[in-house]
Structure prediction request, 97 residues.
Amino acid sequence: MLFVTLYQIVDYLINIIVFVVIVQFVLGLLIAFNVVNMHNQFVSAVYTALNAILEPMLRPIRKIMPNTGAIDFSPMVLIIGLTILQIILGNLARAYY
Prediction:
């Protein structure tokens, strides 16, 4: 029962991280297309905070991946990796229970 509870906590945290990655991606697109401006203090603070949260997870992925130019695939790789981790832990929790 403890493993199932731990799985639920980790699953919830993974969902939060995936949500933050998606928010960072959308905000980055909005900044790139000048829909929102980085001179706005709120936008700048949110984008800086999101980068500070995600950079420790994305940096190792960026080191491994080849340089693709202007397109950064590391957030997609992070989401795929976290989803795979969710599937594995979910199957282990079901097998244990």
